[in-house]
């Protein structure tokens, strides 16, 4: 947003829901404080937010833009020769992403970038957390996960834990929180009751940020038997059409985009690519045995069985910011 101007800037402010009363400096300082507050690197939890700005060598870039990017967003600013070395430039960016995510996303861009590229902005979030109470690997057994389109075998971790929990009868769902060591972050899983595939889309429509925060505030500790896949979840998509639906489309239009506070050149956004990888194991999450009869006891209030699609979020408990958010639909078995 710091490089945009005019109508493009107003669209981004509205789309990102910044109040008109907030000054631009307040917005940037708010992001700076949030990034400083969220970042952590310890033996039990690592959270790294990184921003990379890659500019065409020789392009005329507004000095104020690079200063704000470095100061408020801790951005790495580099120059590359997209025009003459598109393949090498793409590799450089992919290597930066690979390093920033500790190898979890090795190839953000699978094809060489357009030689006419002038500017590439990349944001990465890497999270690696250990459960407050880990699962016992000896209790992990292969079980069925019903995707709705068929059943797949996944290694299913299990154990008895005291977790924050809430039953949500008005949404025909329930939610449990899996805390990480240190208490700063937790994974929340919301499961529809009954046939999840029939209810998941409807559930998602009902879950605004305000609703979720209200439900979290009502959760209470409960000892329960838990089953959770040892899994890898991955998602990659262009956000171009999504952002257009959120009325942030002018930045994609060569005739309408205004980034005059970034460069003196007439530039626009070609695409926004997002990729997420989350891995869940007995030890914790890297963003990245019960009997058969117990496994199928869905009716009791003291079981939480993740064997069908649901909604997953990793949340910073202090700020309330969701670090990751998505649908758990078809987990890939994480083998050790």
From TrEMBL:
The keyword Membrane does not apply. Signal peptide: none annotated. CDD domains: serpin. Keywords: Protease inhibitor, Serine protease inhibitor. SUPFAM superfamilies: Serpins. SMART domains: SERPIN. This is Serpin domain-containing protein.
């Amino acid at each position: 947003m710091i490089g945009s101007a005019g109508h493009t800037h107003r669209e981004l402010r509205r789309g990102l829901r910044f109040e008109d009363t907030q000054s631009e400096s307040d917005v940037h300082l708010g992001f700076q404080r949030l990034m400083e507050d969220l970042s952590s690197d310890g033996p039990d939890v690592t959270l790294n937010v990184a921003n990379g700005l890659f500019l065409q060598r020789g392009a005329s870039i507004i000095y104020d833009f690079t200063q704000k990017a470095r100061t408020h967003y801790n951005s790495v600013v580099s120059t590359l020769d997209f025009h003459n070395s598109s393949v090498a430039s793409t590799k450089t960016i992919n290597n930066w992403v690979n390093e920033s995510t500790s190898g979890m996303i090795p190839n953000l861009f699978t094809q060489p970038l357009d030689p006419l590229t002038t500017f590439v902005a990349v944001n990465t979030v890497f999270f690696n957390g250990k459960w407050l109470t880990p699962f016992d690997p000896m209790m992990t057994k292969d079980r069925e996960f019903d995707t709705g389109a068929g059943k797949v075998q996944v290694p299913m971790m299990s154990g008895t834990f005291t977790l924050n929990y809430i039953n949500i009868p008005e949404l025909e769902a329930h939610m449990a929180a899996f805390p990480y060591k240190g208490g700063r972050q937790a994974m929340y899983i919301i499961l529809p009751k009954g046939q999840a595939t029939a209810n998941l889309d409807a559930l998602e429509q009902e879950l605004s940020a305000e609703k979720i925060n209200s439900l979290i505030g009502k959760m209470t500790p409960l000892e329960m038997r838990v089953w959770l896949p040892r899994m890898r979840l991955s998602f990659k998509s262009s956000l171009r059409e999504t952002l257009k639906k959120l009325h942030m489309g002018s930045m994609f239009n060569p005739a309408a985009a205004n980034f005059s506070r970034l460069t003196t050149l007439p530039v626009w956004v070609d695409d926004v690519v997002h990729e997420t990888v989350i891995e869940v194991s007995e030890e914790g999450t890297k963003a990245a045995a019960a009997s058969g009869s117990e496994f199928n006891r869905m009716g009791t209030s003291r079981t939480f069985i993740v064997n069908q699609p649901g909604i997953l979020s990793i949340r910073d408990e202090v700020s309330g910011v969701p670090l990751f958010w998505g649908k758990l639909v078809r987990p890939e078995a994480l083998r050790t």
